[in-house]
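README: folding subset

This subset contains proteins for which both the sequence and a predicted structure token string are available. Records are stored as plain text. Below is the entry for DUF2062 domain-containing protein (174 residues), shown exactly as it appears on disk.
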Amino acid sequence: MSFFTRIGVWPWIQNKVVDPLMQVVRRGAEPKQLAFSAALGVTLGIFPICGTTVILCGVAIAMLGSHCNAVTVMVLNFVVTPLELSLIVPFLRFGEVITGSGHFPLTSDAFKKVITGQASKDVMLSIVHAMLGWLITAPFALAALYMVFIPCFKLMVDRFGGVPSSPRTPIKLV
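--- output ---
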């Protein structure tokens, strides 16, 4: 028995990530729609302001309606949270390079001021820089992830897919 199985990581991943995605695939979702939804979930999930990604995904789902799969968007948003946290500083630095401003010193005191609401103009400007870095990166990330996810979801649908949600032959009513 592996370490991750003993502490319950694999069963948790199975229940919270794999099972919901497999249910979507088995219901006959289209691979391109799933690929777009997964790419959208990851792209919005790495937005550099913690705690806002669920709202962003909810707004995107509401705006896109049937063009995306809500479960896939939310599951992938949830899965990339560690990636979101690790990309805050690169987005900040990229935004600083784009605007030509100096580097903001990242200290525990700056983080404390943001949390307590005593943030200075420099801290707020650094948040804007991080958002700018994400905003410039997001379309490229969305396109690249979409291209990577299409073959993955085609394989999943071919292998594990169920009955398509819209049958090709009309149903005859008696």
